[in-house]
Amino acid sequence: MNLEKSIAALNNPVRRRILEWLKDRTNFPPALPEHADLDGVCVAYIQEKAKLSQSTISNYMGLLKQAGFVVAERHGQWTFYRRDEENIRAFLAAVQNELLKP
């Protein structure tokens, strides 16, 4: 894990808010019937909630993905994102270890 890259990804309030929103699928509109069985949230719903351009959201989600905070899955023309809870916990443990180690 690259702590600098992870911390840089979190150094933006909207990216942190996106991670917060992704904790609960009900923060977004219901999935379309053909996507009901998929994990995650369509990037279009994230863009709509954040009220930012498609290119900005794509950039933000790419940074969060590179940092290991989200997983992306393509389904046809749609990209769905979900939190990577295991990597989020690993990041928090790494920060704790670095800041609290003797």
Detailed description of the structure:
The chain is an alpha+beta fold and 102 residues long. The chain has one domain: Orthogonal Bundle (Arc Repressor Mutant, subunit A), CATH 1.10.10. It contains five helices and three strands, in the order H-H-E-H-H-E-E-H. Strands 1-3-2 form a three-stranded antiparallel beta sheet. A hairpin with a 2-residue loop joins strand 2 and strand 3. Helix 1 runs antiparallel to helix 4 and helix 3 packs across helix 4. The longest helix is centred in the C-terminal third of the chain and has 16 residues. The chain is elongated, with a radius of gyration of 14 Å.
Secondary-structure element series:
HHEHHEEH
Query: Structural class of the helix and strand makeup?
Result: alpha+beta
Shape: elongated
| Rg (CA only) | 14 Å
Major sheet size, sense and barrel closure:
3 strands, antiparallel
Helix content: 40-55%
Fourth-tier CATH superfamily name: Winged helix-like DNA-binding domain superfamily/Winged helix DNA-binding domain
Q: Which quaternary structure do these chains form?
A: single chain
Low-confidence regions = none
Task: Give the count of helical stretches.
Answer: 5
Number of strands: 3
Distance between the termini: 21 Å
- Examine the secondary-structure arrangement and name the CATH architecture: Orthogonal Bundle
Number of domains: 1
Biggest sheet, strands in spatial order?
1-3-2
According to CATH, the fold-level topology is Arc Repressor Mutant, subunit A
Instruction: Tell me the strand percentage band.
Output: 5-15%
**CATH class designation:** Mainly Alpha
Whole-number mean pLDDT:
93
